[in-house]
C-alpha cells in the first residue's frame, strides 16, 4: 500500500523509512522506492536532506562526547569492559549488523547501539527493530572521533557478557567429538579466524588457555563473522590436559618434531574424541604441552616452508581431522 508523505520540516514515514526535509505544503505518494526517487518524479527540486533512520523513533543525537552512556564506546578499555573482579557486570562491543544479529541469535543481551546517521546496510534495520535500547546516532566522522576508529558498516552494539561457561558445560554433549585448544594465541585476528574455521569445518568447541585473546573482543568477533556467538567456548584452568584425558579425549599437538604424524595418517581419523591443540604465532606450543599429548601432528609442506600462520593452519587441520 502507498503511503502519503506530508513534509514541513518534520520527520515523516515512507514505509519503514524516515525523511527530514524542508519544503512548504507539498505532499505525494510513494511505495517501496526511495524517497529521493519519489521526489524526482514529482518535480520537487528544493534542497533537502534525506536521513534513512528506519525504526529509530528513539534515536538520540550525540551532542556531548563526555556523556557517561558513551563510555563503553569511547573510554573503557578492554580490561575494564571485561571486568574480571565483577564478571557479572562485564560488557563487550559487537561491530557490524551481521555480527550483532548473530550475537542476538545467541541470546546475548544488548545495552545500547551506536550507529552512523543514514545507515541503510543489510541487517542494520533488523538490529534496530530487535533491540529496544537507546540508539545513539551521528555522522560517521563524529563517531570516528568519538571511538578512535572508523566503524565497519556503520554500527556498534554494547552488550552484556554472559556468565562464563564451565568446561563441564561445554563438553557435556556426547556429540562433542572434536575440540580445539588454543594455547596463548594472543592475536585477536587469528582467534577470530580460527573460530570461523572451527565453526565451518565441524569442530564442536573451542577452549582457550590463559594468555589467549578474548573471543568477545570487538575485532575478534568481527573477524569470526559472529561465530564466537555460535560455537561453544570457555577458558581453561591449569589442569586442562588431565581434564580432557579424564573425559576420554585423545590429545594431539600441532608441532613439527621428528616423531610427528602426517596430518592425513589414517589412525588419526579413527579417533572418536580428539582434542586438537595449537600454539601461539611465534613460539608454538610449549615443550611440556607437546610431551604430554598422545600424538604430535604436522602438515606436510613443500618448497622449504616449515610453518603456516596459526589461523591458516587451523583450517587445514580442522578439515582433515573433522569427525567422520
Automatic annotation (TrEMBL):
Its EC number is 2.1.1.-. The keyword Cell inner membrane does not apply. SUPFAM superfamilies: alpha/beta knot, L30e-like. It comes from the Eukaryota. Residues 179-318 form the tRNA/rRNA methyltransferase SpoU type domain. GO terms for molecular function: RNA binding; RNA methyltransferase activity. One of its GO terms (biological process) is RNA processing. Transmembrane segments: none annotated. The keyword Transferase applies. It is an enzyme of class 2 (transferase). Keywords: Methyltransferase, Transferase. InterPro entries: Alpha/beta_knot_MTases, Ribosomal_eL30-like_sf, rRNA_Methyltransferase, SpoU_MeTrfase, tRNA_m1G_MTases_N. PANTHER family: RRNA METHYLASE (PTHR43191:SF12), RRNA METHYLTRANSFERASE 3 (PTHR43191). This is SpoU family RNA methyltransferase. The lineage of its organism: Eukaryota, Sar, Stramenopiles, Ochrophyta, Bacillariophyta.
Amino acid at each position: 500500500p502507498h503511503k502519503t508523505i506530508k513534509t514541513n520540516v518534520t520527520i515523516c514515514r515512507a514505509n519503514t523509512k524516515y525523511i527530514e526535509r524542508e519544503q512548504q505544503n507539498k505532499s505525494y505518494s510513494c511505495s517501496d522506492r526511495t524517497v529521493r526517487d519519489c521526489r524526482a518524479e514529482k518535480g520537487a527540486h528544493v534542497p533537502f536532506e534525506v536521513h534513512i533512520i528506519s525504526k529509530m523513533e528513539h534515536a538520540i543525537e550525540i551532542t556531548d562526547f563526555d556523556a557517561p552512556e558513551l563510555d563503553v564506546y569511547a573510554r573503557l578499555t578492554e580490561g575494564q569492559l571485561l571486568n574480571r573482579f565483577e564478571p557479572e557486570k562485564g560488557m563487550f562491543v559487537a561491530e557490524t549488523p551481521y555480527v550483532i544479529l548473530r550475537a542476538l541469535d545467541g541470546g546475548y543481551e544488548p545495552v545500547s547501539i551506536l550507529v552512523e546517521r543514514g545507515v541503510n546496510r543489510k541487517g542494520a534495520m533488523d538490529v534496530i527493530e530487535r533491540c529496544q535500547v537507546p540508539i545513539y546516532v551521528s555522522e560517521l566522522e563524529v563517531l570516528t572521533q568519538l571511538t578512535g576508529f572508523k566503524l565497519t558498516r556503520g554500527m556498534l552494539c554494547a552488550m552484556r557478557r554472559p556468565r562464563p561457561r564451565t568446561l563441564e558445560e561445554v563438553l557435556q554433549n556426547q556429540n562433542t567429538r572434536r575440540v580445539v585448544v588454543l594455547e596463548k594465541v594472543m592475536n585477536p585476528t587469528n582467534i577470530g579466524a580460527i573460530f570461523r574455521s572451527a565453526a565451518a569445518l565441524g569442530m564442536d568447541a573451542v577452549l582457550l588457555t590463559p594468555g589467549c585473546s578474548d573471543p568477545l573482543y570487538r575485532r575478534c568477533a568481527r573477524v569470526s563473522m559472529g561465530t564466537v556467538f555460535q560455537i561453544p567456548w570457555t577458558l581453561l584452568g591449569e589442569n586442562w590436559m588431565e581434564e580432557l584425558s579424564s573425559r576420554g579425549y585423545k590429545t594431539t599437538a600441532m608441532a613439527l618434531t621428528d616423531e610427528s604424524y602426517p596430518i592425513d595418517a589414517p589412525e588419526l581419523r579413527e579417533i572418536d574424541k580428539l582434542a586438537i591443540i595449537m600454539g601461539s604465532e611465534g613460539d608454538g606450543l610449549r615443550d611440556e604441552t607437546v610431551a604430554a599429548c598422545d600424538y604430535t601432528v604436522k602438515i606436510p609442506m613443500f618448497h622449504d616452508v616449515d610453518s603456516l600462520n596459526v589461523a591458516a593452519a587451523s583450517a587445514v587441520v580442522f578439515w582433515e581431522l573433522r569427525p567422520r
